[in-house]
Design brief:
It is built from 30 helices and 19 strands. The radius of gyration is 29 Å and the shape is globular.
Length: 702
C-alpha cells in the first residue's frame, strides 16, 4: 500500500473527527503540530470504533490522549452480565506510513493498564475520569476481557524485540487467567474500516454440499455437509475476505482452535459430531445443474462471507496443511443463507445472533447431579428457601435463597484449602470449581444444607462489610477489598467457631455478629501481607488468584491475627480520611505560592478522589468540561484557583466542597489539594510536599 492510502485515512479522520475531538489542550502548538495531534487522536478514535462500533461523536468522546494519559489514548467499555470488555488504544500516526512503536511505548502502555487494574484512577487525566464508573461496573461483573489495541499508521511488522516484550508483558498479566490480549491495527485495517464493505473483496465461489437440504420460507437457505479439503481450499483462496462480515477474525492460537485441530488429526471421523458447524451469508445462492435434496448438490455463491465458525474454518485449513492425510476424512455441517430477498439488516441480525448464543458449561451438567437435586429439596423442606440450579432461572431475593453458583463461591471460600478461593476468582463463571475434583472437594457427596446456607450468609456479610469499607478506601486498599472478598471470607471463616455449623440449633447469628470487626482487621493484615510478601507495586489480582500466593498471604495474615496484635494501620495513601488529614498537615497553597512552584495561568484538573465522589460527580463533571478545570495564580493568596465554570476565585478545598455540593447536594469538608492536579506533575498536595522536602523541611502540623 502507498502514501495514497494514508491520504485516504487522513481525509476520513479530518472529515469525521475534525470538529468532534477535543483539541483545547493543544492550543499553544503550531498549526502543523496541532494537526498531527488531531490525526493521532483521530486514529485512536477510529481504532476504538472498529473494536466497539459507535457513532463518530461517541468515538471522539472516548479519546483522552494528552498529559497524564499514562501511555493510552482512547477507551471503550462494554459492561455485560456475560463478560464485560474494555478496549484500550495507543495510537501512532505517521504521514510516511512508518508509525513508530518501540519498547518504551510497550512499557508505558502496560504501566497504564496496571494503574487501571490497581484502581489508581487519580493518575489519569480529566478526559479519562468519565469512564471510571463504567470501568468499575465492568470489574464488578467479573473478570473483564481487556484488549490493548496498537493503532499504528504503518504496514511493516513490529520488531522482534518489541514483539517479545509484548509477549512477556502479556504472560505476566495472564499468569492466572487469559484476561489481556494485544491486537495490532495497521494501515490495511484502517483503510478497510473507512471504506466499509467496499474495502473487502467480493468473494464468489463454487461449493459442494453432501446430503443437502433447503429452506424456502420465509427466506432461501441451503444446508449440508462440506469436506475438510473443500473448506481448506476455500480458505486458501480467500484467507482474509472470507470473514469480512464476521464480528471477529479467526484467532489462530486460541484454545478452541487447538482442540479443533487435534480432533481433525486424531479422530477426523468424529469432527462432524463435535463441531457446531459453519454459517455463511451470501448475496445469492444458485444451484449448478440439477440439485435434488438429499443428494450431492453444487452451488454458485456470490458475495459469500463466513459469519459464524471463523475459528473452525481457519483451524480446518491449518490442520489440513499440517496433516492432509488424517484431516481429509473430516466433514462439517454448513449453512448457506441467501440475502437476496431478505429485509434490510437481516444479515447483521444473523451475524450477531449466531455469535452470541450461550454455550453449554460444566456447571450445567453439575445441576443434574443427585447431590444438587437433594440440596434443592433440603432448601425447600428444611429452610423454606429456594435453591436455583439452572442458568436462566430467576434468582430469588437474597433473603429467600441462593443459586448453585453463589453456594459454590461460598463453599470454596470456606474450604480449608485456600487454593479453592483462588480458583474461584480466576473466572467469572467459576469454571475451575466445576471441575470434578474441585467440585467434590467443596460440595462433597452429600452437602449439608445448613452448612451451605450459612456459608452463603457469611460470604454475603463479608462482602457487605467490604463494600462499606470501600467507601473510604482508594487505590490498593480499594482493590484488595474488591478482589479479595473470597480471600477475606476464607480467613474470617477460620477465625469463627464453626464446629457446629451443620447443627440446625447452632447459634450462627452470634458468629455473624463478629464479622464486621474481623473483616476490618483481616483486610489490614491481608494488605500488609501482600505488600510485605510481594511489594507495594505488586498486583493485588495476582495475590488473590494465584494458588501459591494466596496460601502465603493467608498464612501471613493468620499469623498476624493469631498474635493478638493490633491490626497494622493502612497506609495513609490508601484511606480517604487519612489522606484528608495528611493534606491539612502542610499548608500546600502557602508552600507552593512562596516557592513559585506553579507558573501563573497554569490550568489545573479536578479528579474525584474517592469512590463516592466518582459515583456522585462523574456525570456532572462530564456535562461541562469547564467544571473540572481551574487556572492557577500566585497572586491569589488563599484563593489561587479561578474556576472555569464561573470565573470566580476559590481555595482548592473551598472549590472542591462547592463542586461536590452542586453535583450531589453533599456539603462536607474536603481536602482540595489532593483533588486538584497539575497535569503531568501531580496533585497540589504532592507538589507541596516535594517542595518542603527539597527545602529540607519535614511536613509539620499547621
Amino acid at each position: 500500500m502507498s502514501k495514497l492510502h494514508v491520504g485516504y485515512v487522513r481525509e476520513a479522520i479530518e472529515e469525521r473527527f475534525g470538529g468532534l475531538i477535543d483539541m483545547s489542550d493543544q492550543a499553544r502548538l503550531s498549526e502543523a503540530s496541532r494537526h498531527q495531534a488531531l490525526l493521532s487522536r483521530g486514529l485512536a478514535a477510529l481504532a476504538a470504533q472498529i473494536e466497539h462500533p459507535c457513532s463518530d461523536r461517541v468515538a471522539a468522546s472516548r479519546v483522552f490522549d494528552g498529559q497524564d494519559d499514562q501511555g493510552l489514548d482512547s477507551i471503550a467499555v462494554e459492561v455485560s452480565t456475560v463478560r464485560s470488555r474494555i478496549c484500550l488504544v495507543q495510537a501512532k500516526w505517521s504521514d510516511q506510513n512508518k508509525g513508530a512503536f518501540g519498547e518504551a511505548e510497550v512499557h508505558k502502555m502496560f504501566h497504564g493498564l496496571e494503574l487501571m487494574l490497581d484502581r489508581n484512577f487519580g493518575r489519569f487525566n480529566r478526559r479519562f475520569q468519565p469512564f471510571v464508573p463504567d470501568i468499575e461496573r465492568a470489574y464488578e461483573t467479573g473478570t473483564p476481557k481487556i484488549t490493548l489495541v496498537l493503532a499504528l499508521m504503518r504496514e511493516a511488522p513490529l520488531s522482534d524485540g518489541v514483539r517479545e516484550l509484548i509477549r512477556m508483558k502479556l504472560a505476566e498479566q495472564n499468569q492466572v487467567e487469559q484476561m489481556v490480549e494485544v491486537k495490532i491495527l495497521d494501515l490495511r485495517d484502517f483503510h478497510r474500516a473507512i471504506l466499509g464493505d467496499v474495502a473487502a473483496p467480493k468473494i464468489d465461489a463454487k461449493v459442494q454440499l453432501e446430503c443437502f437440504g433447503q429452506e424456502s420460507t420465509p427466506y432461501k437457505a441451503m444446508y449440508g455437509t462440506m469436506t475438510v479439503p473443500d473448506l481448506a481450499d476455500l480458505y486458501e483462496e480467500h484467507p482474509r475476505g472470507l470473514f469480512a462480515r464476521n464480528i471477529r477474525d479467526s484467532l489462530d492460537e486460541s484454545d478452541v482452535n487447538l482442540k479443533i485441530r487435534r480432533t481433525l488429526r486424531e479422530e477426523p471421523e468424529h469432527f462432524w459430531y463435535f463441531s457446531n458447524g459453519i454459517t455463511m451469508l451470501c448475496e445469492t445462492v444458485q444451484p449448478l445443474g440439477r440439485a435434488l435434496p438429499g443428494k450431492v448438490g453444487h452451488f454458485q455463491l456470490t458475495g459469500v462471507s463466513v459469519v459464524n465458525g471463523a475459528q473452525t474454518v481457519s483451524a480446518i485449513h491449518r490442520a489440513f496443511k499440517e496433516d492432509p492425510v488424517a484431516a481429509q476424512d473430516g466433514r462439517v455441517l454448513v449453512r448457506l443463507i441467501s440475502l437476496e430477498n431478505c429485509p434490510p439488516g437481516f444479515g447483521d441480525q444473523v451475524t450477531t445472533t449466531t455469535n452470541t448464543q450461550n454455550p453449554i458449561e460444566e456447571r450445567d451438567f453439575k445441576s443434574l447431579d443427585q447431590g444438587q437435586l437433594n440440596l434443592r429439596d433440603a432448601f425447600a423442606l428444611k429452610l423454606n428457601r429456594i435453591y436455583v440450579l439452572k442458568r436462566g432461572e430467576a434468582i430469588p431475593d437474597p433473603a429467600h435463597g441462593c443459586s448453585i453458583t453463589e453456594a459454590a463461591e461460598a463453599l470454596a471460600a470456606a474450604s480449608p484449602n485456600a487454593q479453592l478461593a483462588a480458583v474461584a476468582k480466576r473466572d467469572q463463571n467459576l469454571a475451575g470449581l466445576w471441575e470434578d475434583d474441585n467440585y467434590q472437594e467443596i460440595f462433597g457427596a452429600e452437602p449439608n444444607v445448613f452448612r451451605v446456607w450459612r456459608c452463603v450468609e457469611l460470604l454475603r456479610a463479608v462482602r457487605a462489610q467490604l463494600q462499606d469499607l470501600r467507601e473510604g478506601l482508594v487505590w490498593r486498599a480499594d482493590a484488595a477489598a474488591f478482589y479479595g472478598d473470597l480471600l477475606v471470607t476464607h480467613i474470617v471463616y477460620r477465625r469463627l467457631s464453626t464446629r457446629s455449623i451443620e447443627d440446625p440449633e447452632s447459634d450462627w447469628p452470634a458468629e455473624l455478629a463478629k464479622v464486621p470487626d474481623l473483616v476490618r482487621d483481616t483486610l489490614s493484615w491481608v494488605l500488609n501481607a501482600i505488600d510485605e510478601e510481594y511489594g507495594t507495586t505488586s498486583h493485588i489480582i495476582a495475590a488473590v488468584r494465584n494458588t501459591e500466593r494466596i496460601e502465603r498471604v493467608v498464612r501471613a495474615a493468620l499469623r498476624g491475627l493469631d498474635s493478638e496484635k493490633q491490626a497494622p494501620p493502612l497506609n495513609t495513601d490508601y484511606q480517604v480520611a487519612q489522606a484528608e488529614t495528611r493534606g491539612r498537615k502542610i499548608n500546600a497553597v502557602t508552600t507552593l505560592v512562596a516557592a513559585r512552584r506553579i507558573p501563573d495561568s497554569t490550568v489545573l484538573e479536578y479528579r474525584p478522589y474517592s469512590k463516592p465522589e466518582r459515583r456522585e460527580m462523574a456525570e456532572w463533571l462530564a456535562e461541562d468540561p469547564r467544571r473540572a478545570q481551574a487556572t492557577w495564580s500566585n497572586e491569589g493568596g488563599r484563593y489561587p484557583l479561578r474556576w472555569h465554570a464561573d470565573q470566580e476565585w476559590y481555595s482548592p478545598s473551598g472549590l472542591a466542597r462547592k463542586m461536590r455540593h452542586e453535583a450531589a447536594g453533599v456539603d462536607s469538608s474536603v481536602q482540595g489539594t489532593i483533588r486538584w492536579f497539575v497535569p503531568g506533575e501531580g496533585s497540589l498536595d504532592e507538589l507541596a510536599l516535594a517542595v518542603r522536602l527539597e527545602q529540607g523541611n519535614e511536613p509539620a502540623e499547621s
